[in-house]
Design a protein that fits this description.
The chain is mostly helical. It contains 1 helix and no strands. 0% of the residues are buried.
Length: 29
């Protein structure tokens, strides 16, 4: 279940979570 097929799906999920973490961190600081 995901927007992409294959191993890239897991990479994309981690990438999105990382980006969200960076955005939240930048917003708080």
């Amino acid at each position: 279940m995901g927007l992409f097929h294959g191993d890239f799906d897991d990479f994309a999920l981690i990438l999105v979570l990382f980006i969200l973490l960076v955005i939240v961190g930048a917003a708080e600081n």
